[in-house]
Amino acid sequence: MLLHIPGLFAKEEVQRIRQALEQADWADGKITAGFQSAKAKHNLQLPEGHPLAKEIGAAMLERLWKNPLFMSAALPHKVFPPLVNCYTAGGSFDFHIDNAVRQPKGSIERVRTDLSATLFFSEPEDYDGGELEIQDTYGSQRVKLPAGDMVLYPGTSLHKVNAVTRGARYAAFFWTQSLVREDSQRALLFEMDGAIQQLTQDVPEHPSLIRLTGTYHNLLRRWVEV
Ligand code: NI
Fold first, then answer.
1. pLDDT exceeds 90 at position 31
2. Which end of the chain has fewer CB atoms within 10 angstroms, the N or the C?
3. Binding-site residues for Fe cation
4. How far is the CA of 195 from the centre of ligand 1 (A)?
């Protein structure tokens, strides 16, 4: 399941973040790539633990934890803190699948990468190329979102970032370990939660809402891993 989460950051906030990123000291993106993906990866990245990356990451996670769409779709257990990258001057990242397990620098805790997410900090018209191309069950999807918007997709997907041939593409990305490992089960719970939320608005007094909500939780209990 591919999910677009709009407006995580307002336009003024995004502009402030982008200005700070334009002044930052960037490193080669290969620093966090595995042996194989290092050959495919041509971009810049803020080093893990860079103060600006930490600040942006903390702000992002604070928003996400309050975002009903993200909470319902991801059912997050823990995350690998956001990393910030920049594609410019022909930079690209060829087709790959992300590593299954990640360990944040200086942490003993490991994160299984059930879900990947990219938050865009550049407006689509400010650069050419740079689409995030994701292969999902319905074929290939090209994602290039307004600044402040985020896409969430299964960590199992083959994906790439097309070459940026004009301007710069700033973005943050991170991985989430979900309470529910399987994408198909998570998608079903997300669908059901959405339907229950809609019914709660439209027919708030209907007695079946209690049964439906109970069924949602009983399915979740069956699949959850903590
Ligand atoms: Ni990737």
1. no
2. C
3. 96, 98, 159
4. 32
